[in-house]
Amino acid sequence: MRVRLWGTRGSVAAPGPDTARYGGNTSCVQVTGSDGTELVLDAGTGVRLLGPALPRSLRRLDVLITHLHMDHILGLGFFGPLRVPGLSVHIWGPASATQSLAARLTRYLSPPLFPVRLRDLEANIDLHEVPCGDFSIGEFRVSADLVCHPDPTVGYRIGSPGGTVAYLPDHEPALGARRFPIAAEWTSGHGLARGVDVLIHDTQYTEEEYAQRVGWGHSSVPQTFAFARLAGVRTLVPFHHDPSHDDRALDTIFGEAVKTLRPPFEVSPAMEGVSFDLG
């Protein structure tokens, strides 16, 4: 299993040398199986760069969307594979009590917000609402569950013979807890992250910034490290960087966190283009 990062931000950062290493695109991660199965986690602006990198021989592609905030679906209209005739594209996303996934995605992929309608794209598109229990895609076993973030939001756990990865890019498990972390069984997202080889997790704020943004659906650096420790992960990938944090700021934030918190796991802050090979 190979995991490659194409977009790491919470919203688009100003491009330039100050974001050259961490990148400025919004959430998008590629997971490739040893059998050639391709998963795309979220379709932020990074998915535009991913499109040309996919094999031309691909016959099926699965896009797993955590939620429908714009920074996680903005790239869909510019994702080249959706214009490939005959390509089977399965889009998975959170269910809602008010509207279907198709109705909600169509609000973006239709005029006046976008000139092309979802139904007019050339690929063969199938939509699936989650959580719906565990399901298989190629060699992968996928689990989805609701997590703590405004509007219906899910996280994903992806397992294969080569390893496991959990993807929780927008997540505030500390919300409502007087002391965090609390017992594992009461912690949002713990079941998805427990014991994974790689945890890709929301780490948007410093501790000082979070104090002014409680309830916004995101985690501080200490909270993310505490969550990863509770889950017993092997590698933490801090993700969903605040767009106001440039390369220098992020180096300082994570360098000081590792020095102060002394995590029992590897920490590899998310940078565009970085890959993790499992197995």
Notes on the structure:
With 279 residues, the protein is of the alpha/beta class. It is 18% helix and 26% strand. Strands 6-5-4-3-2-1-14 form a seven-stranded mixed sheet. A seven-stranded mixed sheet has the order 7-8-9-10-11-12-13, covered by helices on one side.
Please outline what is shown here.
Helix content is 18%, strand content 26%.
H-E order: EEEHEHEHEEEEEHEHHEHEE
Helix percent band: 10-25%
Mean pLDDT: 95
What structural category do the secondary elements indicate?
Answer: alpha/beta
**How can the largest sheet be summarized?**
7 strands, mixed
β-strand number? 14
Beta content comes to 25-35%
Looking across the biggest beta sheet, what order are the strands in? 6-5-4-3-2-1-14
Uncertain runs: none
Comma- or semicolon-separated keywords:
globular; 14 strands; alpha/beta; 279 residues; 7-stranded mixed sheet
Task: Describe how the helices and strands are arranged.
Layout (H helix, E strand, L loop, with lengths): L1 E6 L20 E5 L5 E4 L5 H4 L9 E5 L5 H4 L14 E7 L6 H8 L15 E7 L4 E3 L2 E7 L7 E7 L2 E6 L21 H4 L4 E5 L4 H4 L10 H11 L3 E5 L7 H15 L4 E2 L7 E3 L2
Parallel strand pairs: 3-4, 4-5, 5-6, 10-11, 11-12, 12-13
Antiparallel strand pairs: 1-2, 1-14, 2-3, 7-8, 8-9, 9-10
